[in-house]
Amino acid sequence: MKKSLFFNGIKDGFPIFLGYLAVAFTFGIAASKIGVFASILMSATNLTSAGQFAGLDIIEDSLPYFAMALSQLIINLRYCLMSSSLSQKFDSDMPSIHRYLIAFGVTDEIFGVCSQYKGKLRPSYCYGIIFVSFSGWVGGTLLGAVSGTVLPKSVLSALGIALYGMFIAIIMPSAKKERSIALIIFSSMILSALFSYAPILKTVSSSFRIIILTVLISAIAAVLKPVKESGDKAK
User: Fold this and answer.
1) Rounded CA gap, 90 and 54, in Å?
2) What are phi and psi of 99, to 5 degrees?
3) What Rg, from alpha-carbon coordinates, does the chain have?
4) What 3-state class would DSSP assign to 121?
5) Phi/psi of residue 190, each to 5°?
6) Backbone phi, psi, residue 119, to 5°
7) Angle 206-209-211 (CA atoms, 0-180°, nearest 5)?
8) At what angle do helices 206-224 and 179-197 cross, to 10 degrees?
9) Is the pTM for the entire model greater than 0.85?
10) How far, CA to CA in Å, does 85 sit from each of 25, 81, 89, 114, 162?
């Protein structure tokens, strides 16, 4: 039964594996400057694309550990909410060790698949999804980091565009459906431009810029698209 659930998790997580392989390859290229082993270690212990890219900027700027901790807290705070939500689909008597291990592997995509699972979630199923997704992320990082040490700079620059293409592919379908999301994207572009060209704001380091913009854009999103409580409908 456990093996069956594990392999079902691998099957359901295989599309995530393919996506992570491509994105992690791009990250590996960017992280090749800190070394192949360090790149793999970062992916194996974090499993978060936005957080890892932000971490690279902080390492490059030689900022203190506090800046690293604060940026990771803000960027990855959503995973705490996702893990809390998924915990409602577990049996109440599930051992804490399983909850901790599954929480480590929760990402946006894994949360999406697990939240759609019918019935109670079993650890074996979750481990199957996490295993195949983790393999794609770490494997893609390895390929990218090795490629970053041998490929010409012109090729690496061309491959670096893949990351931006991925982000555009993610946000454009939602922006077409929801006007509020389009406004949020436009606001983020304006704020990013201000921090890049405004006389005082452009002096802010790229890592602290990520922290400030994340908070500001999240606040704008909360104002433009607030989540309605169930009690609001009755009023």
Assistant:
1) 32
2) -65, -40
3) 19
4) coil
5) -65, -45
6) 90, -170
7) 120
8) 150
9) no
10) 30, 6, 8, 10, 32
Structure tokens at 175: 């922006």
User: Cα 143–144–145 angle (5° rounding)?
Assistant: 95
The 10s digit of each residue's pLDDT in 133-158 is 999 999 999 999 998 888 777 777 77
Residue type, 22: A
Question: What six digits make up the tokens of 114?
Answer: 């697990």
Enter the tokens of residue 209.
């810029």
**Closest by Cα among 161, 95, 158 to 123:** 95
CA distance readout (Å), 30 to 47, 52, 88, 125, 212: 16, 10, 37, 33, 23
DSSP H or E segment with residue 201: none
- In the chain, % helix, strand, coil (3-state, to 5) comes to 85, 0, 15
